Amino acid sequence: MLYDNKSSSSPCFDKDSGIRVAKRSSEGHCRTPAYIRGKIGVIERYCGNFPNPEQIAICHPKPDVIPLYRCRFYQKDIWPHYTGNDCDTLELEIFEHWLEPATF
Amino acid sequence: MHDEVLKMGPHDVGGEKYLQIDTEDHGMTYWEKFSNGLRIAVSAKKIITLDELRLTAEKFGDEYFQMEYFERNGKALTHACLNKKLLTDKELIAGKKRHKENFTIPIIELPDPKSIIHLHDGEPHTHSRDDFQEDEKGEGPPDYFLEMLTIADILTEKKLIKMEDIFLKIEQFDNQYPARGIDVVTRAWVDNSFRDFLINDAKNAIIDIGIKLESFADIICMPQSDKMHHLVVCTLCSCYPRALLGMPPSWYKSRSYRSRVVYEPRKVLEEFGTIIPDSVEVKVHDSNADMRYLILPQRPKGTEGWSESALSALISRDHLVGVRLPKNVI
Question: Is there a domain that residue B288 lies in?
Answer without folding.
Answer: yes
